Amino acid sequence: MEPASMLNKDQRVAIFMEGATGDARGKMGFGVIRYSPNPIACVVDSEQAGRDMAEVAGMPKAVPIVATVEEAVRRGAEVLILGIAPTGGLIPSEWYATIDDAVARGLSILNGLHDLLAPRYPNLDPGQWVWDVRVEPEGLQPSSGRAAGLGNLRVLLVGTDMGIGKMTTGLEIFHAARAKGIDAEFVATGQIGITVTGRGVPLDAIRMDFAAGAIEAEVMRAAGAELVLIEGQGSIVHPGSSATLPLIRGAMPTHLVLCHRAGQRHLWRLPEVPIPPLSCVARLYQDIAAACGTYKAPTVAAVALNTFHIESDDEAARACRLVEDETGLPCLDPVRHGADRLLLRILDPSNVQN
User: Fold this and answer.
1) Cβ distance 95 to 116 under 8 Å?
2) Which of 12, 146, 206, 342 is deepest in the core (most CB within 10 A)?
3) Cβ–Cβ < 8 Å for 120, 102
4) Beta strand 299-306 with 227-230: parallel, antiparallel or unpaired?
5) How many CB atoms lie within 10 A of CB 164?
């Protein structure tokens, strides 16, 4: 039922990140650079052309930055990925000239935004495609709580805000588990996760009545795995987020990992909305999942702290200790410190909620 990936893992990609290589709007591009198995030809950003992503954004790969799609084609790009997440998930009108140019030069397009591009390009060359990731799958059904009967571990990544590292944390734990020979699956629920894994459910494109059912179906597909990581979306604290309850009811998680950005006191785009104490947020997620005892309460295993904006390792470690003191939970940055400690906490049977 998930959207079929059109992207072959051998295809060379270019990532369109005009003006966003150095800030949070570029999270799609950052995720592709960090986790995609595809070879990356370059990033397109005329403002930073001549530099590379390791220098500009601290990425683990020195991906070159070029000014135009024409240069991307010369570097062997076959697919242009829209690597920016603008407010509202809509394609800005000024992008269309670049996208039109890319299609005219024979590139396929991977679009993770709400505006669909396939209808704009009905006459593509053989082998050329447009993959609109945010399309509701067919065959959806409401959730019935089936995942609660599974015997595996199901970890839902939850957060204090949008765009703070829920997908990153989930993928880091997933890769750590696979490296240790653990049978693990990752359920992608957003544009980046689906792009880098090739499957999943675009949760914010699914009608509300079927949202929990779509998550349930993917979790049941992975029922044979020992460990299932479910990518979180949004935040229970955010007034514009409607994803939390479908994720909780569809996944029926056994564990939660709370994701937070170090030092953040209010919502990123809504400074008038404060973030409650982390221990309160963790308890709120747990209480919602348990529904006054209707369902088994999940264990809040740990806090994953995003310290990307902190240069000093010592300061990052200090930020983690402060969170540990506040919450009584283990805290680390899975990118900076590795995810092994998070994984061991999840696997420890003594941490399971009674």
Assistant:
1) no
2) 342
3) no
4) unpaired
5) 24
Residues written for the chain: 354
CA triple 117-121-122, angle to 5 deg: 120
Count CA within 13 A, CB hemisphere, residue 276: 13
Task: Decide: 66 and 44 in contact? Cβ < 8 Å.
Answer: yes
Q: Which two tokens stand for residue 48?
A: 């930073």
Tokens (6 digits) for 346: 């999840």
> b/e map of 261-300 (b: 16 or more CB within 10 Å)?
bbeeeebeeeeeeebeebbebbeebbebbeeeeebebbbb
| Identity of the amino acid at 314 | D
Secondary structure class of 301 (helix, strand, coil)? strand
β-bridge partners, 132: 111
- To which H or E segment does residue 280 belong? helix 278-290
Distance set, CA 44 to CA 21, 63, 87, 201 (Å): 9, 10, 20, 28
One-letter amino acid identity for 210?
F
Rounded-to-integer distance, Cα 58 and Cα 266, Å = 25
Distance CA 33, CA 36 (A): 6
Q: What is the largest CA-CA distance in the chain?
A: 60
Q: Residue 348: is it exposed, middle or buried by C-beta count within 10 angstroms (0-12/13-18/19+)?
A: exposed
DSSP assignment string, 176-197:
HHHHTT--EEEE--SHHHHHHH
Sign of the C-alpha dihedral computed for residues 219, 84, 68 and 123 taken in this order: positive
Determine the Cα–Cα distance for residues 44 and 18; give it in Å rounded to an integer.
Answer: 6
> What is the predicted pLDDT for the residue at 317?
97
Q: By C-alpha distance, which of 194, 179, 106 is closest to 202?
A: 194
List all residues 6 or more positions away from 327 whose beta carbon is below 8 Å from its beta carbon. Answer: 278, 279, 282, 303
- Rounded CA separation 342/267 (Å): 25
Cα 202 to the center of its chain, rounded Å? 11
Q: What is the mean pLDDT of each run of 10 residues along the chain (354 residues)?
A: 73 98 92 96 98 94 97 98 90 97 98 96 96 94 97 98 94 98 97 94 95 98 98 96 95 98 96 98 98 97 96 97 97 97 94 67
